[in-house]
Design goal:
42% helix; two-stranded parallel ribbon; 165 residues; alpha/beta; 3-stranded parallel beta sheet
């Protein structure tokens, strides 16, 4: 199982896991997003210009499992916990449509520029970190028709946003 690496430990040749491994760091993957949702829903969402809903982009992952009845191998329960967080964000939007819009970004492998992973992993299974960043900002600023954004959608949105600059 992968271990967490801090940003300062990551090099341009190492895939960074600054946000933790897919099944570890429940505080980062569960508690922080929920705390952010609570804080933003009470302090920012009611104050958006022109009464538009506040857009929250939850950074999740491609392997996350929303269906809580799915049986997973031992050690992968974190994938369901993170899936429950995704579902909670979707449900929160449904109950607060006038002030809140949830988006769930589900990238596959996020790669850093110059990483060996960029040539070792097929393109559809990866997304460059700068493309992901551009996609996340684009969705937060402009929104998107789809609520759950897979790797292909994130790549398309990120590249389009980067082409606009």
């Amino acid at each position: 199982m992968p271990t967490s690496v801090t940003i300062s430990q990551a090099s341009s040749n190492t895939p960074a896991r600054a946000l933790g491994a897919p099944t570890s760091n429940i505080d980062i993957h569960v508690q922080y997003p929920v705390a952010a949702q609570r804080a933003f829903a009470t302090s920012l969402a009611p104050k958006t210009p022109s009464g538009k809903p506040f857009r929250f982009v939850l950074l999740s992952g491609a392997a996350i499992v929303r269906d809580q009845t799915t049986r997973l191998p031992p050690g992968l329960s974190g994938l369901k916990q993170r899936g429950q967080v995704e579902q909670d964000f979707v449900d929160f939007e449904a109950q607060n449509q006038e002030i809140w819009k949830s988006f769930v970004a589900r990238p596959r492998m996020v790669i850093m520029p110059g990483s060996w992973v960029s040539w070792a992993i097929p393109g559809g299974f990866q997304i460059p970190v700068e493309v992901l960043g551009a996609a996340l900002v684009s969705v937060a600023v402009s929104g998107e028709a789809e609520q759950t954004l897979d790797n292909a959608a994130l790549t398309r949105l990120g590249r389009a946003a980067m082409a606009e600059k």
